[in-house]
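Submission sheet (multi-component)
Chains listed below:
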Amino acid sequence: MDSALIPNGVKRCSMGKFLLWNSIIGLVLLWGVFALLLCWIKGLNQTNMNNAYGFALWIWADLAVIALGGGAFFTGFLRYIVGKEELKNIINYAVLIGFICYSAAQLILGIDIGQPLRGWFIFWHANIHSMLTEVAFCLSCYFIVLCIEYIPLILENRQTDKVPFFHNLTHNMHEVMAIFAATGAFLSFFHQGSLGGVSGVLFGRPFGFREHIFGTIWPYTFFLFTWSAAACGPCFTILVTKITEKIAGKKLVKDNVIDLLAKISGWMILTYIIAKTADTLYWAFVTAPSTGFILAKFYTENPGSVYGYWILFLEIVICGFVPALFLIVKKWRRTPVLLWTAIILAVIGVSLNRWVLVLQVLAVPVMPFTDWNIYFPSWQEIATTILPVAYGILLIMISYRYLPIFPQEAELNPIEPEPEPEQEAKPEGKAEEIKTKAGEPELKPAEA
Amino acid sequence: MLPFISFEWVWDMGHLVFHGGLWYALNIIGLAMTYCVLKTIYDTYKGKGAQHH
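Outcome: structure written.
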C-alpha cells in the first residue's frame, strides 16, 4: 500500500502490523495528552509539586533526556569536526534520537511552566543572572539545529527526493552540515553545562553546591554535566540502535561503527567518572564540611533509606567505572552481553546522576529543625513523562519505515528474490486471481 | 530582548555576553540556511538535480 514510500532495497513489515503498533503506542500517547490537558486547563495543582519541590519528575526527565540526547551533538562533533568517517553510518539515527529527546524536553518544559503561552517571556524578559536563561537560549537554538539536521533526512524519502528542489536542498544542506554540527556542539556545551550549574550554584543547599572555576562563574558540576552527556549520550544511541535491531530482527549498523562509538564512549565515561570521583571527594571532605554538614547527614536518617550511600556507590562504581571498563577493553566490548550491560548501565548512571542533582538536592534538609522532604509524582506527572516516550517510539517507527536512516541496512540485509508463484504453497490459481482483481499485482518493496 | 527596543536592556557585560551569544548562534544558523536555500534555488533554476530520477 505504501511501498512507493519505503526506501529502496529494504524490506518493512506489512501496513496492518505497522498500523496496529502505531495504534497501541498512540493510545499511550493519548493518555499522556489527556494528562497534559488536565495540567494546562486545571493548572499545576494536578501535580504533587509543592514549596519544597519546585523541580520534580518533569525536570528530572528533562535533564535525563537532554543528557541522553547528547549522543547527537557528540556524534556530530566526532563525525564532522574530528572526522570519524565511520560514524556517518549512525549519525542519522543519532540525529533522530537527539531530535526526539530535545523536542521531548521542550514539550515537558511547555507543561512545567504552567502557562505555555508565556513561554516567550524567558527570551524577551531574560534574567541574565540565571543559568536557566542560558539553558533556554541554547536549548531552543540547538533544537533549531536538530530540526535543520533532521530535514535532509525527511527530504531523502524516495518520493520527496524526486523533486529537484528538495534533492538540491538536501545536497546543499549536507555540504554545510559541519557548520551546523559545530554550532550544535557549541550550544550543547553551554546548555548541558548550565543545567549542571543550576545545582552547583545553590549555596543555600550544601548537597548540591560545588566549588567554582573562575571565581564565581562556573561550578564544577557545569563541566561534569557536559562531560557526562558527551560520554553517555552515545551509549543511548547505541542502546536504541540495538533495540531497533532486535525489534526489526536484522542488523542495521556494522559492528565496526558500534565498536568505534562504544570505545570512544568508554574512554569518555572513564575520564568523566574519575573527575566525578575527585569532585565528590573534594565536596565530601572540604566543601560540605565548610558549610557545617558532614557527609553522613546527606545519606542517612532519611525515610526508608531512599537516599542511602547505595545511591552514591551505584552511580559512581556500578554505573560509572564498570561500564567504562567494559567499553574500553576490546574483548569485553565485543562480547554482546557485556556491551549490552555497559550501555544500559551508562544510561542508568547518567539518569541517576540527574535524579540525584535534581531531587536529592531538594530532599535533603538544610536546617537543623527541618525533616527530609518526600515527594512522589501524581499520575498526571507520570503520564506526561511517559508521553514523550510514546511520541519518540512513534517517530522512530515512522522514520524507520519511510526514511533512509541506516545507510548500511540494504547491504547488510540483501533482499532474496521472491519465490516463483508455482513454488509457493498457495491454492491453485490464487496468484492469477490477485492479478485479475487488482489489475496488476501490488508492487512489493523489494521489487520497488 | 533587543537593545534600543526593549526598556529592560542595559549596556552591561551580562546582557552583551548572554544576548550576544544568542544572536551569534542564531545568525550562524540563519546565514547557513539562507545560503542553502539561495544555492538550491540557483541550482534548481540551472536544472541541476532534474536528471536525478
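Remark: The radius of gyration of chain B is 19 Å.
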